[in-house]
């Protein structure tokens, strides 16, 4: 019978269980050793070689401490003892062979004392306890290899990080585009709802202009910036509209619904990184000075250092509305959808080209408006005109101090008021005299811009013109400027063609200004025929013989009719299936705005007075311009130090 030593068995069993438990726990904890390396690889910042080397060293220290490494030492001793792997004896034989070969091939004789000393050192080394097992040896080999490839691994890891960052940016762009799409749908739904006012408009009594005006105003407000811009253009020349509708649309020149306080704060956070209250004093987000289609204008005080002392300076702050570019693009889309869908209700083949041309013309029209959204470009233009206005007694432009994407800070004007407010304090002859003074300054300013500077304010409706009590002008909102270089010949030919009623020359001008001149030249005869019909309906007859005498007989009314026809044809060229280039289209609407503003300054006065003042002021412009130049030179000369 075999006798079992229970104490020994219990001890060995306990030792085995403890060893198994330690092995299991060490194995469970082992993945934690990889965590620092994984974090290093997964973080957003790039990896350096020093960081990677340090974390790999710590990882291998943890691997060396694992019980498997310790057990591998015992296994290695057992395998070497039974010569299953190289052991001390095989190592010594290999070393003896190498020493013998060295001694045989040495050019000098090696003393025996050196050889004996070497073998004494070798035996001491061999007789030392086993230092590393097979697992540890493989770990050493792996670490050596990794250390060699550390630069490559660092580069590879950083490239992976860069790809991940790019993917994150791409994903962010994708999410941003999805968000844009969502906001576009909100805008588009609102604009399409606004178009529903067309039906009640058509159901009103044709002579009920007051009711029509109320409906149009509601549609414009609900549709948003694009329709507000169109309303401003339409109101700039009231001769094309019934008085009730013209007066209702004129409201959009002076003021529109302001931005909310939250919208203003959000604009500042996006552009400046903080709300306006942290930058200015007395900035009231809920009380703008005025509001327009592009944004709202506020008055505030800003701390500025002057002569070493901080003082509060009043300034004007213009804040752009949110998502304006999308508003304009969605507006064009909504109108295009309306025009396309109209083919369902009126499926006539002759309507299709007209609707397509109208749709393309609206796109060109809104494209010009989108230029007004760049505040930085507006600041450059405004400061350029502010420099030109220095020394002028007729007009002035406030200087821009700072500008960001949606915020524009400019000079505060003490005595600037809207024209209507300036005139409101006058009556009788004093009012008429001030009206004519403002009109004289306005005409002089326009002529100086057109003739001297070859560019002018592209949106001179009353909302963008302010005046002082003495009639001097202040021009604001420089988002739209028309460059006249290269356009004078075309404008001259166009106006002469309309005045003379020459439909051949008129067709050539319109074709040249169109977006597809080559294609439209093939339709020249068709366009001339349509122009003949249009001019005949408007009562504009060709001036083939004695044109000056004919114009004189037609008088002011005839001249006004021909000029209105010129503006009408340019604005409604799509009726001829022509799409005018954006530059010419906005030049036309800018000239209409200027003409309408000038005519409105003579409201309640006879056309003869306006015609007489116009002729006198135009004829005296060279003299007044020379006098102003000499005055500027004299004032600048007075500033020079005496010699």
TrEMBL record:
Superkingdom, taxonomy of origin: Bacteria
Keywords: Kinase, Transferase, Ubiquinone
Keyword Nucleus: no
InterPro entries membership: ABC1_dom, Kinase-like_dom_sf, Prot_kinase_dom, UbiB_kinase
Molecular-function GO term, any one: ATP binding
Keyword field contains Kinase: yes
Pfam families: ABC1
Positions of the Protein kinase domain: 283-643
UniProt-listed PROSITE patterns: PROTEIN_KINASE_DOM
UniProt similarity note: Belongs to the protein kinase superfamily. ADCK protein kinase family.
Protein name (database record): Putative unusual protein kinase regulating ubiquinone biosynthesis (AarF/ABC1/UbiB family)
